[in-house]
Hints:
Blueprint: H1 3-17, E1 21-27, E2 35-41, E3 43-44, E4 50-55, H2 59-66, E5 69-75, E6 86-95, H3 101-111, H4 115-121, E7 124-139, E8 142-147, H5 148-151, H6 159-172, H7 174-183, E9 193-199, E10 202-207, E11 210-215, H8 223-243
Antiparallel strand pairs: 1-2, 1-5, 3-4, 4-7, 5-6, 6-7, 7-8, 9-10, 10-11
Helix pairs in contact: 6-7, 7-8
Amino acid sequence: MTFADQTVARSARELYASSHQGILSTLSLEVPGYPFGSVITFAPDRGGRPIILISDIAQHTHNIKADARVSLTLTEGGDDVQSTGRVTIVGNAHPVADGEIDDVAARYYRRFPHASDYHKAHDFSFFRIDPVRVRYIGGFGRIHWVSANELCLANPFDEDVEAGMIAHMNVDHVDAMHDYCRLFGVDPQKQHPRMTGIDAEGFDLMLGKRLLRIPFEQPVTSAIEVRQAMVALVQRARSESADTP
């Protein structure tokens, strides 16, 4: 892979990692042959693939059960969507296997804690989108195809290690999370930040229903490297705060 290809793939991953909702397109049963769009929320599984929680009575669920081919479109946001980044993940959606549901549910509910009530009260099920190919548009003239492996990176941490690091930060280092928010231009006083996920390239904070993605300067593969990366971010945040008049 060339340096340019690596840069494109990294940009696509960054947009994907900073997103938690998008447009799910399925093949309509009601209007055969036409795409059907729905607004959904998602969280990445331990393999970096999108996990969605959908109702058995929803139209998109009926469509998926009849034909697994879907696409998930994510946008960067902004006043002019034509000039900002977007990603379309083309893939196949299948129910999550019983043996994986506990881990998938834990990751999803950390991001969307209110969804656990929906799951208990209604007939909702977890589905995984296995990407086949990804279309990344980084703005005008920056249009690329990205492979599934380039978008979805496996998490280097198992369920227990990740959960332990997250719990430690949420209990003992709330002040540090406030520093991370300020470093990335977000007022943490308006919404209390919660850490919800950690992977090789960064970590996720939820402020209410808003996702704030904090990237590491370098990829990490161990809990020690995570700690070093987070300390470096705190030091950077406090240094920049001290330099601000």
